[in-house]
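hey m, so remember when u said the tokens were messed up on ur end? i reran from scratch. heres the input so u can diff it against urs
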Amino acid sequence: MSATSVKGAAPPDTSTTAPSRKGGGAPTPRQRAARRRKLVALVFLLPALLLLGALVAYPILFTVGRSFFDASGTEFVGAENYAEMFRDPATMSAVRNSAIWVVVAPALLTGVGLVLAVLTEKIRWATAFKLVLFMPMAISFLAAGIIFRVVYEHDPEKGVLNAAAVGIHDAFDKSQGYPSAHPKDNSVLDKGKDGSYTTKDKASPGNTVDLGLVGVPPKELPKQAKPARAAASAADGELRGVVWFDFTFGGGGKPGKVDPKEKGLPNMTVEAVQDGKVVDKATTAADGSYRITGLKAGDYSLRLPAANFAEPYGGVEWLGPALITPAIIGAYLWIWTGFSMVLIGAGLAAMPRDVLEAARIDGANEWQIFRRITVPLLSPVLGVVFVTLVINVMKVFDLVYIIAPGPVKQDANVLALQMWQVSFGGGNNQGLGSALAVLLLVLVVPAMILNIRRFRRSQS
């Protein structure tokens, strides 16, 4: 009989063959390999963790702490900086403008990017089109701000937008303004309260009335202006004359008479007025001549309406207080449209095509496919693009600082710019600036968390 079959015998000692995990025995090779992998991972992660702590964690903690001290950083003031932040009108203006940015810019960019991404799938040169739209992303915000500062320039000779606006306006409105023109003291014209000029004496049809003006700088004379000529005799039922620049360059000439070297004033309106009502009117030709026909017998006054002396149309004041924020948002759209389009286009390329084909077979038109299939399937991508742009516009600084002129910078102010101005741009109050930085961080963090959750859901 073997030893194991003896009743009451002690069980064999197996401690040498299977060491206990809890008893502090030697680790197995698998445990040693796992520990070695963790150590190697820690060694490789350590530089990144140090950089993250030095460049992110420490500045955040320091800024939060600094926000509880005064401008000098020596006296603890508690939450006073946060209270002052919301009492400051400049800060409230920055909050309002930042809210406009958050609401308008990401929504516009996402919508425009979606439309362009869908349309580029239907054109032959889609890659080249995407490349052209994406190129502004390679330009720094500083360079883009300088470009659009010139584009928005009010002077039509410099600003591209106003040059186009003036060209379109002048194509439909041929009137010529001479804001500095006026008659001489002994002229036949009297000035009205509304800025118009009316003849002192009345004239009957069949007469000629010449109207001389001075005060027009040589550079403001239209290029099409030709030498003025004395009006020919008028026929029955008409009044004729010439409106001219009654000044001879280089000297000479007689006041009140049309001299050979004097030029006419084209595109001026001349009205025939009887009993306070405008009966008819005419526009002067290149040589300043006018002709009003079809007049009945009677006495008429000739009037140059105030519109002749109004300032010429100079375009839109893009950099004024009313339009400065929309103008800067327009520059931002120019830069980021390519990013939005490419990202949404990538999601569109990964979308299953059999769903679209099935919808077309069922008789759905392109608008129905876009609204009921394309947009719902792209909603995760659209959400990521929108939230990413929200985070980006909360930090916008360069464009506002470069594009907005000094007098309207407060009208375009945003939180990031206000933080810089308070801390380093003349305010020298880094306590209040730190409070603004904390406010900006608090506003950005929810969008960041939402974006991270979306990424995790898309990977699961």
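this time it looks ok to me. Residues 189-309 form one domain. if urs says something different then somethings off w ur setup not the seq
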